[in-house]
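Hi C.,

You asked whether I'd gotten around to modeling the 139-residue construct. I have! Everything is below, sequence then structure, no commentary in between.
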Amino acid sequence: MKTSKLEELRQSLEDVNSEFFSLLARRQKLVNQIQELKKSEDVWDPRREYALFSRYCYENTHFDLKQDFLFSYLIESQAQASGRYPAWSCGEHLHKVKQGLNYQLNPILLWLRDRKTYCELALNAEYEKKLGEILTDEK
């Protein structure tokens, strides 16, 4: 009895995994199409990301830092595949790179989740200006 329930749950998980993989591939195709249309524009749109991460935070209040990082990294890796996009996970936005997921997270998502830690970031001048404009407007 216990084994059949376990097998049933594992099969359900496999089904969800298959659906997830299909959605990731579909998402990448859409990102590529969008990037193709934006060829002459800057790939990174802080206002668009603010809206995306606001929705993400609203719908996923129970997610922790690791799940936030996975979503942030998904956005980063898919956008980088087809255009110029900040390498948050490498600390491109920081004067001094520190260890820890907070410093590898998209700073807009970090601002939404943990303002205190966001304020501790040593942003370089370029990102301090860009992020300051959008995050000041959204307070």
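If it helps when you're writing up: The chain has a mean pLDDT of 90.

Thanks,
B.
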